[in-house]
Amino acid sequence: MVPDSVMKSLSVSTPTRIVLLVMDGLGDVRQQGKTPLEAARTPVLDRLAAEGTLGLSDPIASGITPGSGPAHVSLFGYDPIRYQIGRGILEATGIDMKLKPSDVATRGNFASMDAGGLITDRRAGRISTEKNAELVAVMSAAIREVKGVEVILRTVKEHRFVAVFRGAGLDQRVSETDPQVLGKKSIPAAALVPEAQKTAAAVNEFIARANEALKAHHPANTLLLRGFSSPPTIPQMQELYKLKPAAIATYPMYRGLARLVGMSVLPTGETVEDEFQTLKENWDRFDFFFVHVKKTDSYGEDGNFPAKVKVIEEVDRLLPRLLELKPDVLAVTGDHSTPCLLKGHSWHPNPFLLSSPYVRVDETNAFSEAQCARGGLGRFPAEESIALLLANALKLEKFGA
Amino acid sequence: MVPDSVMKSLSVSTPTRIVLLVMDGLGDVRQQGKTPLEAARTPVLDRLAAEGTLGLSDPIASGITPGSGPAHVSLFGYDPIRYQIGRGILEATGIDMKLKPSDVATRGNFASMDAGGLITDRRAGRISTEKNAELVAVMSAAIREVKGVEVILRTVKEHRFVAVFRGAGLDQRVSETDPQVLGKKSIPAAALVPEAQKTAAAVNEFIARANEALKAHHPANTLLLRGFSSPPTIPQMQELYKLKPAAIATYPMYRGLARLVGMSVLPTGETVEDEFQTLKENWDRFDFFFVHVKKTDSYGEDGNFPAKVKVIEEVDRLLPRLLELKPDVLAVTGDHSTPCLLKGHSWHPNPFLLSSPYVRVDETNAFSEAQCARGGLGRFPAEESIALLLANALKLEKFGA
User: Fold this and answer.
1) Which of B377, B390, B300, B311 is nearest to B336 (CA)?
2) Greatest pairwise CA separation for chain B in angstroms
3) Please, which residues 66-105 of chain B have a Cβ atom closer than 8 Å to chain A?
């Protein structure tokens, strides 16, 4: 990947349109002789593969299994090692919170402590999401600000919530309060650098007042905070690539990740059909569309092979609606692999399909992991995907004379 | 790519000989089902492919279209982002000027200005090359030196010339004088760093005296300068790789690029046949030969598919003469792709053919982009080509014990 400064100097705005269609966790491994992508009936994807070119892209590097954050950061063209997204920020984006650059967000767990202040359950018996919402309301009513710092609390799910500290002079370099083991007290937040002293003091004041507010609410009578983080200072796609980028995603975390790199997030419905309809309705307003399909990953995580196959077939069946819009460049890929066999993210590279008038056609004729392994694009860092899309849309000028 | 210091510590001089045969702009995309390399009848290259191994090499990175400068820097084994060659240097090498490391070269345009000094034509009505030569003679007679700095002027073509400033204490970090738009005055050269103040002063003095000398020569009554640059400080091939390298190229720019990395430039004729004859005549004097065939690129730029096919066939027909010399290692590749469809350089990786007694033979049997995509070398940075050639010539020792 060339440096951002070079990408910025080469990119030009043109009327051509790019669609990056991401089936989350698409890549898989074979079970009973086939991967879900191989088992699925996908005549449209197979035709695109035959007329286009295939390859494999590495989200991070060989053997490295990425979380959704780094996988998308890479797919959007940024170095995932350099631009790491803190747990607190990821959690906040995951519930669609809009953050300011100077905010410090943290992931919170409701927890149980005994009379001596020792932690007896790090998840407060996994209280219900409804109970969580009730307690967040209790805390929010009791604590508006600490030491001049605004505190914003939001329920995530079960025992998980997000706390955002907002105000001047905050710094994310604060240590976690979770002792990680039972029978110990929670650890006071500490400033890891002098600049974070104000933040650590505010956090500790917040915890003291939260303990007071939660006193009568055992098992959720305390909280543990970790992943203190501010939004990354990441160059925006408009500036780097001179794109007008938009994101279409049904899950908040992916909308949040897209927002971090400068995409406009378009309201959409719950289904792939809704997403393609949103794409159509906004076609004239943008020149880059990130369209995110979540369910391939969800079923991979569940180990549900037939359901993953069905999602892929659904996308293939709906693809003609996307193709009717005549994108100049279309890429179909995953952010990372989620093999049903592993029921989780994996290190396997992503199948990658590229369609444009300028691709170098290869000898592949179906969209599958095995055909991608011998495709014309070879194996490349996912971070380079954007440059490839821009080049095929004739949006990159020559480097050097 | 391993660091230069490691390459230097591993390389050894041996009697083996390497030929790097570069067909400029060789890579292409299909039109009516075939690329020029696929359409060409190339029995010799196909046999070499079957007995050797293929791959694809990236001049810079996915999606990045290189100019000839960075493409060759990469092919010669250097990081093309680190070692960037300025416009002035490239222009000077393009007319075979020999430069000193401390020279500052700049590309000049003859231009027109009105009585008020406003630029009315940035190319002086594209005057003829003959007129250019006449005006360069006028300026050269009037201006030998400015502020103790020697000025060397050479005609390039039409309105383009090269000015080289030669003397002690010069620095390339000087701003361009071209206002880029009509109706403005040319911009005085400014030092971008304090070390360049002497150079900027000399440049401005030169412009003032050139304006005086050109006063009566409207439309070419002034000049615009850009791309101030010194030869890059680039490690020489002799030192890094312990090679005795020679370049055989019909076009001056490629001779100039080869000279920058330490190659001896051999006089040759105009045709591929001449070049192969030069190779034969100098076979005993060197152990590394860069042989450059230009016309594949020229016809790619013209979009002339049949002519590009013919050049490839001509090379194939002449190849037995090269093979008679029994090179220990032969690579056939491009510096970048120049698809006829795009009529210009592109981002597509280079087809790469490697022949030596030690290659790991793969399943390919013809030299084409598609077969290269499934070749045993896979896809690799062009910058690593030299290490691959040296290794196959048994010119690299083991790294570590």
Assistant:
1) B300
2) 74
3) 66-70, 80-81, 84-85, 87, 90
Q: Which residues of B touch A10 (CB under 8 A)?
A: 64
Contact B350, B26 (CB under 8 A): yes
**Cα separation, B34 vs A361, whole angstroms:** 9
Phi, then psi, of B38 in degrees rounded to 5? -75, -35
**Do strands A245-249 and A53-58 pair parallel, antiparallel, or not at all (unpaired)?**
unpaired
Exposure string of B198-229, with b = 16+ CB inside 10 Å and e = fewer, is: bbbbbbbbbbeebeebbeebebbbbbbbbbbb
| Separation between Cα atoms, residue A34 and residue B275, nearest integer Å | 53
The full length of chain A comes to 401
Query: Which single residue is written with the structure tokens 């003609």?
Result: A320
Q: Please tell me the distance from the alpha carbon of residue A57 to that of residue A354, in angstroms, as a whole number.
A: 12
- Say how far apart CA A197 and CA A149 lie, in whole Å: 13
Torsion of CA A100, A106, A110, A113, to 10 degrees: -130
How far apart CA B282 and CA A64 sit, in angstroms, is 50
Give the pLDDT of chain A (401 residues) as one tens digit per residue.
799 999 999 999 999 999 999 999 999 999 999 999 999 999 999 999 999 999 999 999 999 999 999 999 999 999 999 999 998 998 998 888 989 999 999 999 999 999 999 999 999 999 999 999 999 999 999 999 999 999 999 999 899 999 999 999 999 999 999 999 999 999 999 999 999 999 999 999 999 999 999 999 999 999 999 999 999 889 999 999 999 999 999 988 899 899 999 999 999 999 999 999 999 999 999 999 999 999 999 999 999 999 999 999 999 999 999 999 999 999 999 999 999 999 999 999 999 999 999 999 999 999 999 999 999 999 999 999 999 999 999 999 999 98
Helix ranges (H only) for B249-304 are: 252-260, 272-281, 295-302
Confirm or reject contact between A8 and chain B (CB < 8 A).
no
User: Quick check: A2 contacting B, CB < 8 Å?
Assistant: yes
Nearest CA in chain A to B33: A361
Cβ of B5 under 8 Å from any chain A Cβ?
A: no
Is the CB of residue B345 less than 8 Å away from at least one CB of chain A?
Answer: yes
The kind and range of the H/E element at A266 are none
Using CA atoms, how far residue B351 sits from A83, A280, A360, B316, B380, in Å, is 34, 39, 12, 15, 11
**Phi and psi, residue A297, nearest 5°:** -70, -45
Among A6, A360, A400, beta carbon nearest to B69: A400
Using an 8 Å CB-CB cutoff, list chain B residues near A400: 66-70, 80, 84-85
Q: How far is A232 from chain B (nearest CA, A)?
A: 25
Which residue among B29, B35, B90 places its CB closest to the CB of A358?
B29
- How many A/B residue pairs have CB atoms within 8 Å? 106
Distance CA B300, CA B321 (A): 26
Residues of chain A with C-beta less than 8 angstroms from the C-beta of B85: 400
CB hemisphere CA count around B190 (13 angstroms): 5
Output the pTM of the full model: 0.90
Distance CA A18, CA A12 (A): 14
Instruction: Quote the minimal CA–CA distance from A293 to chain B in Å.
Output: 25
A309, A318, A253: which is closest to A279 by C-alpha?
Answer: A318
**A258 touches B at CB < 8 Å:** no
Q: Which pLDDT score is estimated for B326? A: 98
